[in-house]
Design goal:
Chain B: It is a multi-pass membrane protein. Chain B: This is Putative ABC transport system permease protein. Chain B: Its main location: membrane. Chain B: It comes from Roseivivax sediminis. The complex is a heterotrimer of chains A (about 190), B (about 425) and C (about 230). Chain A is mainly beta and about 190 residues long. Chain A has a single domain (about 5-25, about 55-170), classed as PCu(A)C copper chaperone (Immunoglobulin-like, Sandwich). Chain A has one helix at about 5-15; strands at about 45, 50, 55, 60-70, 75-80, 90-95, 100-110, 115-120, 120-125, 130, 135-145, 155-160, 165-170. In chain A, the strands form 2 sheets. In chain A, strands 3, 4, 5, 6, 7, 8, 9, 10, 11, 12 and 13 form an 11-stranded mixed β-sheet that branches. In chain A, strands 1-2 form a two-stranded antiparallel sheet. In chain B, a hairpin with a 2-residue loop joins strand 2 and strand 3 (about 145-150). In chain B, helix 3 (about 40-50) crosses helix 12 (about 350-390) and helix 4 runs antiparallel to helix 10 (about 295-335). A 6-stranded mixed β-sheet of chain C has the order 6-7-8-3-9-10. In chain C, strands 2-1-4-5 form a 4-stranded antiparallel β-sheet, covered by helices on one side. The two termini of chain C are about 30 Å apart. Helix content of chain C is about 35%, strand content about 25%. Chain C has one domain (about 5-225): Rossmann fold. Classes of the chains: A mainly beta (about 190), B alpha+beta (about 425), C alpha/beta (about 230). Chains A and B meet through helix 1, strand 7, strand 9 and strand 10 of A and helix 4, helix 5, helix 9, helix 10 and helix 12 of B.
């Protein structure tokens, strides 16, 4: 019983973590977009043009790309990639006009500090999907040339062995933990 | 400039930051003490007000120690729990709470969890990128130590293959954790369940012999007893994972049709990237859930960090209050010392010398308190760590890191600058008035 | 080296505007021993502090040699005191936590490094001349006479030409006071110092070259001391 003291304390402090919407398993939350036609592009009409929460190209879908507002020179981009096609596809990297460098990175906890290490490629099997999420998998932008302001969008291109997939990445709050439509089943 | 900075090893960066924090204090010291030698007087004052000084130093040490202990303890907890999760790259369970499953698997906290069936296990175990797919069958215990059914490769992975004695060769043999009370050769009967839900005698008749011991891992698994998963199933009167034609087999492959179920599968991938692919692949609505213990812990740390932040602010406020009271004390003492100060001025000492005396005195208190604070913080962390380790079997070690030294240096620099104020405030007082006081 | 003293039109006013001291003219040749007497509150100490450059807002001039203390900044006056003036107080004003030598050589802590050895050496030799034991004891355990001797050694340690003493014997019993007067006068004479001593003590005043009487802030008499 006393063995659990520390862990119980942590557990008590973190009720929300137990089910914070990992994956698309929990879709029960209510929101105003329920009647969107998700097969079509589902757009937020921002000033001067439209941005998309879903990109389809080369038979791949990139969904709900988001990042956090920052004044620093690095940012992590998260999203979900789906491969509804019959063939394996390999994600080979990323690029952005806003950043000197972009790469796919994977999280490892190490001694408790946690760090992201570059991954050269990420294969995606036919019918598979891949979730880029905080403390797991991300696209890391380094050498940012502009501050990322909350509510804005930046363009990041995902590189694959089938060709580039341009994405509009939503900039959330500096402490955001998910896309503004997280849990929204596309 | 920035590139040079980034090119430095992190130790050098930390050392430079520390130096930077100390620069203001050192600069003041050099400016005030240049060409004067007020140490006999400073030690005279330290001695005259020795009880008050001791109180000041103790207050500073405790308040600084609190701040330090908090930071060091959090880092120790992080490192300890991260180390405990290190062997668990990816865990596959039935859908549910990742946190619950993390505690059940990595930290061996008893939980009621649903089972994964043979098909689900087969899908994980047969995946091309999966190197180890180890079932973890927990729920039984022996004298409060968890008895966990698994496979040989996981036992080897967990202990880095440091096993004294030998590996099990058949059902009914066990490998004990380093802290287990069972020696090699001991025979025991597991009980069903844990703690208050314990059912002694449920497994009467089952006898398991310990044939090996794992080296210490610094995790709750040190207390556990590992058995072949087949043993757990057989003890519960279930199929043992193998077709009757293959009944004597221990370990994979398992026959999905004779697989009774496992609460968790620990997965080790053959490639780093494959972990992330497997995580997405094994997360299937209503069937399985895959998670990285490292990610769940890391999310916990963020919350823990927020709590620490809040407590750090309280510790900082305490430090601020203590610093303020010490400065007030200095102010009062410099009033008590007014006559002596006036005397120094009358004898021809410069006002810089008077400032140097009082500053050296204040800084001696602050520096002593801050340094002792490091010790207090370390001691507090060491004691807390020992308690945590005893209660959870997660080895949490106490250590002081750069951030603690930075904290102390920052505290010292700020307060040592502020300690000039009480003296400066009285600088314009008349010497004759002071002599007559 | 000692210095002549010349006061001209010296006036000291209190914060509240009351005239504390008014001296038209006073000349003291170098090497003289001057006593100052008068009723309490008459301005004797004010005169002494003016001579030491410890007062703000005085008018007129206080010349020691070519230096007019009245025209100097407080910092410059402190430097002048450190180098030229030795001060002795009624209640000694020693640091109780320091020993005899530590007190006598106090100036070594704030004077330039090159002077420190000399200061300590002079402090030690004056202490020994005055018969004060230099050991590990702090002055807290000393008798009044011993304490005032330490104060004298301190006043002499910077080899100042000017000694200013404020009631140096008032805290001592008769025997100790007489002994102290002997030593003080002898040291001042030997060193050719200019000494100004404020005192009620007839035995001290009797050993001075001149005795000034201050009443109500004015010099009312400037008499050669009668032979005792």
């Amino acid at each position: 019983m006393s063995r659990a003291a520390l862990l119980a304390l942590l557990l008590a402090a973190t009720p929300a973590l137990a089910d914070d919407g990992h994956g698309h398993a929990e879709t029960g939350e209510d929101h105003v977009h329920d009647d969107h036609a998700h097969e079509e592009d589902h757009d937020d009409h921002a000033e001067g043009g439209s941005v998309s929460h879903v990109t389809e190209a080369h038979g791949l879908r990139a969904v709900h790309a988001w990042t956090r507002a920052t004044t620093g020179d690095a940012a992590l981009v998260f999203l979900a990639v789906e491969n509804p096609s019959e063939d394996r596809v390999v994600l080979t990297g990323a690029s952005s006009d806003l950043a000197d460098d972009a790469e796919i990175v994977g999280f490892s906890l190490g001694d408790g500090t946690g760090s992201y290490a570059p991954l050269a490629e990420m294969p995606l099997p036919p019918g598979g999907s891949l979730r880029f999420a905080p403390q797991e998998l991300a696209i890391r932008l380094t050498g940012l040339r502009a501050e990322l302001g909350e509510g804005g969008y930046i363009e990041v291109t995902l590189a694959t062995d089938r060709g580039p997939i341009p994405m509009d990445v939503e900039v959330g709050a500096a402490d955001a933990t998910g896309h503004s439509h997280a849990g929204h089943a596309h | 400039m920035r590139d040079i900075w980034l090119s430095l090893p992190s130790g050098a960066q930390d050392a430079l930051i520390l130096a930077l924090f100390l620069v203001p204090a050192l600069a003041i010291g050099v400016a005030l003490l240049r060409g004067v030698a007020p140490f006999p007087l400073v030690s005279a004052i330290l001695w005259r007000f020795r009880w008050a000084n001791t109180m000041f130093v103790a207050l500073i040490a405790i308040s600084v120690g609190m701040g330090i202990g908090l930071v060091a303890q959090e880092r120790g907890l992080r490192a300890g729990t991260a180390q405990a999760a290190d062997k668990f790259d990816l865990v596959v369970t039935a859908p549910g709470s990742e946190l619950t499953m993390l505690f059940a698997t990595v930290f061996l906290q008893p939980q009621d969890v649903p089972l994964l069936g043979g098909a689900a296990f087969e899908r994980v175990a047969s995946h091309e990128n999966v190197e180890i797919a180890a079932p973890l069958a927990f729920g039984d215990s022996y004298r409060s130590a968890p008895v966990v059914g698994t496979i040989e490769s996981f036992a080897r992975h967990l202990s880095d293959n440091r096993i004294e004695g030998r590996m099990w060769r058949s059902s009914g043999e066990a490998i004990a954790g380093a802290l287990s009370e069972l020696e090699i050769g001991a025979v025991f009967t597991p009980a069903h369940g844990h703690g208050s839900a314990l059912e002694e005698g449920a497994h009467a008749g089952t006898e398991i012999e310990v044939v090996g011991r794992m080296a210490p891992t610094g995790t709750p698994w040190d207390r556990s007893i590992l058995v072949p998963v087949e043993t757990v199933w057989e003890t519960h009167g279930l199929a043992n994972g193998h077709a009757p034609s293959d009944a004597g087999r221990i370990g994979p492959p398992f026959d999905p049709d004779h697989f009774p179920g496992t609460p968790a599968i620990v997965v080790r991938a053959d490639e780093l990237w494959a972990n992330y692919a497997l995580r997405s692949e094994f997360t299937r609505d209503g069937e399985t859930m895959a998670f990285f213990p490292g990610t769940v812990l890391s999310n916990l740390y963020i919350v823990m960090g927020d709590v620490r932040q809040a407590m750090s602010i309280m510790a900082l406020v305490t430090q601020g209050l203590v610093a303020a009271s010490v400065l007030l004390g200095l102010f009062i003492l410099s009033r008590l010392f007014r006559r002596q100060i006036a005397l120094l001025r009358a004898l021809g000492a410069s006002s810089r010398f008077v400032l140097a005396v009082m500053w050296s005195y204040g800084t001696a208190l602050l520096a002593t308190g801050a340094t002792l604070g490091l010790g207090v913080g370390y001691a507090a962390t060491a004691i807390l760590s020992r308690i945590v380790t005893e209660r959870t079997d997660i080895v949490v070690s106490a250590s002081l890191g750069w951030s603690e030294f930075h904290l102390v240096a920052g505290f010292l620099s700020v307060t040592t600058i502020l300690s000039l104020l009480p003296v400066l405030a009285q600088r314009r007082q008349s010497v004759v008035g002071g002599l007559r006081a | 080296m000692t210095l002549d003293l010349t006061l001209k039109a010296l006036a000291v006013t209190s914060d509240r505007g009351r005239r504390l001291l008014d001296v038209d003219r006073l000349e003291v040749p170098a090497g003289s021993l001057i006593g100052v007497r008068g009723p309490s509150g008459a301005g004797k100490s004010t005169l002494l502090y003016a001579l030491a450059g410890l007062l703000e807002g005085l008018t007129g001039s206080v010349h020691w040699g070519d230096t007019d203390l009245a025209a100097l900044t407080p910092g410059a006056r402190a430097v002048f005191r450190a180098r030229r003036i030795g001060l002795i107080f009624q209640d000694f004003l020693l640091f109780d936590e320091l020993g005899a030598l530590g007190n006598a050589s106090l100036a070594a802590q704030f004077r330039p490094r090159k002077d420190r050895t000399d200061i300590v050496a002079r402090a030690a030799s004056h202490l020994s001349r005055l018969g004060v034991p230099v050991d590990r004891r702090t002055v807290a355990t000393f008798s009044g006479g011993e304490r005032q001797r330490v104060a004298i050694a301190r006043a002499l340690a910077n080899d100042a030409g000017i000694l200013l003493a404020d009631e140096p014997t008032a805290s001592l019993h008769r025997e100790a006071a007489d002994q102290l007067i002997e030593d003080l006068v002898a040291l001042a004479r030997e060193g050719g110092k200019t000494m100004v001593a404020v005192s009620h003590d007839g035995a001290l005043l009797a050993r001075m070259d001149r005795v000034l009487t201050v009443e109500d802030g004015r010099l009312v008499s400037d008499a050669r001391a009668e032979a005792a």
